[in-house]
Amino acid sequence: MALKIRLQRHGASHRPFYRMVVTEASARRDGRFVEVLGTYEPQASKPENELKVKLERVDYWKSVGAKPTDTAASMIRKARRAAPAAEAPAAAEVEAPAEA
Fold first, then answer.
1. Pairing relation of β-strands 15-24 and 3-12?
2. φ and ψ at 87, to 5 degrees?
3. What is the rounded distance in angstroms from the CA atom of residue 93 to the CA atom of residue 86?
4. Residue pair 10/19 in contact by the 8 Å Cβ criterion
5. How confident is the model at residue 86 (pLDDT cuts 50, 70, 90)?
6. Which residue has the higher pLDDT, 9 or 88?
7. How far apart are CA 35 and CA 42, in angstroms?
8. What per-residue confidence (pLDDT) applies to 53?
9. Looking at residue 93, what is its pLDDT?
10. At what angle do helices 55-63 and 70-99 cross, to 10 degrees?
């Protein structure tokens, strides 16, 4: 059973919404899947709502042999670049009271 990490298209005409899923390579594009790893909404009102990915689960599935498609790999890279920026302020706020 070859696993892929790829996008499923949902939403209305001219208003796409995608789910990043783990699925069998032979499954249809919008067919059966094993797990939802995140979402991508290209027309989101706020840029921070555009892409949401569970990076821990992506790492797990890649460790057991799932191969991301080119588009999914690109979005995973984009999510990894955005993740440290989102985590850094929270870590700085936690450390500030301890030093004072």
1. antiparallel
2. -85, -25
3. 12
4. yes
5. low
6. 9
7. 21
8. 94
9. 57
10. 130
Nearest in space to 23 (alpha carbons), one of 54, 68, 63, 57 = 68
Give the side-chain half-sphere CA count within 13 A for 35. Answer: 12
Query: Phi then psi for 88, rounded to 5 degrees?
Result: -60, -50
C-alpha span between 92 and 21 (Å, rounded):
33
pLDDT at 48: 85
Query: How many residues can be counted in the chain?
Result: 100
Pick the closest to residue 54 from 67, 72, 71 (CA basis).
72
Q: What domains can you pick out in the chain, each with its CATH number?
A: 3-99 (3.30.1320.10)
DSSP string, the chain: --EEEEEEEEEETTEEEEEEEEEETTS-TTS--SEEEEEE-TT-SSGGGTEEE-HHHHHHHHHTT-EE-HHHHHHHHHHHHHHHHHHHHHHHHHHHHHH-
